[in-house]
């Protein structure tokens, strides 16, 4: 009986240690510091809560090299003079700076763009589209990064 | 920077009105993010191309604002619906104010 207790205690201790290690890892390297992505998004949406949908963010599930991750963003709306996507902002929650890129569209362009981005670590990438009437839509993808693009 | 020659590819240059042209652009640039440190531990200052724009006859139809998280040698692929014939001007602006520019002629009939 005493043995069992000890084992249980040992297990509890072990779990605690793992949790602590994970937590300290999160707050660990300067590269992984939390950035102010929420504020950046709020400034972009002008305080509105983005609606999920319409925007499609395509990123690989696993990026072997965080220095160059192919990314495509598209918005499923017809682009006319009356109604068009004004701007699409890409935000990386786990990069040193939240901003990645923002695309400005006009009725003379198609709401779709592809580029290559840097991701410092495994993280969520958010795309937010703002229409010319001010409504906002979003999409989010998690990317697992094998080698970070922080460039030591 | 004037010696940098961007590569631009249009899938077609002669389209019917309402048609779509796919544009691919690539330009050489280190896109120094401002996050890296040199061997003495000093931060290497940021030096990137911060804006890109695609203008038709002087009017911007597509543009992008870039941050340090855009990969070196920035590549773009996008689509345009030009309403008229004319000159497409592609401009990249560096943090130091210099510009890289290229043009293409298109025909819309």
From TrEMBL, chain A:
It holds the Pfam family SoxY. Residues 42-150 form the Ig-like SoxY domain. PROSITE patterns: TAT. The keyword tRNA processing does not apply. Residues 1-32 form the signal peptide. Keywords: Signal. It comes from the Bacteria. InterPro entries: SoxY, SoxY_sf, Sulphur_oxidation_SoxY, TAT_signal. NCBIfam families: SoxY_true_GGCGG. This is Thiosulfate-binding protein SoxY. It comes from Methylobacterium gossipiicola.
From TrEMBL, chain B:
Residues 14-103 form the Sulphur oxidation protein SoxZ domain. It comes from the Bacteria. NCBIfam families: SoxZ_true. This is Sulfur compound chelating protein SoxZ. It comes from Methylobacterium gossipiicola.
């Amino acid at each position: 009986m005493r043995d069992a207790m000890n084992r249980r205690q040992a297990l509890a201790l072990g779990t605690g240690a793992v949790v602590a290690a994970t937590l300290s890892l999160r707050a660990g390297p300067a590269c992984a510091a939390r950035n102010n992505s929420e504020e950046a998004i709020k400034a972009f949406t002008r305080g509105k809560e983005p609606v999920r949908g319409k925007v499609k963010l395509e990123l690989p599930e696993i990026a072997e090299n965080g220095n160059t991750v192919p990314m495509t963003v598209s918005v499923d709306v017809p682009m006319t003079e009356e109604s068009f996507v004004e701007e699409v902002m890409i935000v990386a929650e786990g990069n040193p700076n939240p901003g990645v890129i923002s695309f400005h569209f006009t009725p003379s362009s198609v709401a779709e763009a592809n580029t290559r981005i840097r991701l410092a670590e495994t993280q969520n990438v958010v795309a937010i589209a703002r229409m010319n009437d001010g409504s906002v839509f979003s999409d989010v993808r998690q990317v697992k990064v094998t080698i970070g693009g922080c460039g030591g | 920077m004037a010696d940098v020659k961007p590569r631009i590819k249009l899938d077609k240059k002669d389209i019917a009105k309402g048609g779509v042209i796919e544009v691919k652009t690539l330009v050489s640039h280190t896109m120094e993010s401002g996050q890296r440190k040199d061997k003495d531990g000093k931060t290497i200052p940021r030096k990137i191309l911060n804006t890109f724009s695609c203008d038709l006859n002087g009017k911007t139809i597509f543009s992008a604002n870039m941050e340090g998280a855009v990969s070196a040698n920035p590549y773009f692929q996008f689509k345009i619906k030009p309403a008229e014939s004319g000159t497409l001007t592609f401009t990249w602006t560096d943090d130091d104010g210099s510009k890289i520019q290229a043009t293409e002629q298109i025909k819309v009939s």
